[in-house]
Amino acid sequence: MYQSVAGIILAGGQSRRMGGGDKPLLPLGKGRLIDHVVARLKAQVGMLALNANGDLARFAGLGIPVIADTVPGYAGPLAGILAGLEWTADNTACRSLVSAAGDTPFFPSDLVERLAAVAYERPGAIAVASADGRWHPTFALWPLGLRDDLRRFLVDEDNRRVSAFIERHGFVEVEFPMIEADGERIDPFFNINTPDDLAEAERLLQSLQP
User: CA 1 from chain center: how many Å?
Assistant: First the structure.
């Protein structure tokens, strides 16, 4: 666990490809999708919050703070990251923030450890997770000092592209190994967008359990 790193789970999307509603609240294994994500990230950070929009009370049972976007209009993952950076600066003693998507239940259990190690060598840089040569910009470690620039990027420039903001700043990719399951190589950042993805996640969950 890295006490100096806070975590934000991004669950503010509208789940259109899943037919709307709250994708993170869908059942997976013996719990819900969000339960797997919370448990995995909570073990790695000093403080943890969840970003969502609408009626925040529906996530109250998670036992962690639930924070809404601080810019209007469902501005996507960057808005959740901004909300997380501002919440971390105002409510914790943490010095950086790691973001994780709320629909990705198998991300690495050493995500924060490895991102933080690289960020320590590159002060001020954004450390971005990658697997099999493909980066995953919603899984990254963000210095708190970026929050004012990120707000300008979202509000003044009306730019919502996560990769565009990362590319504007110093960043470094951190490669994570693929998951081996039933003879297959699975991206650890496999995310659930459709009912078929949810069925695949259920199958993977069963195969990965000891």
Answer: 17
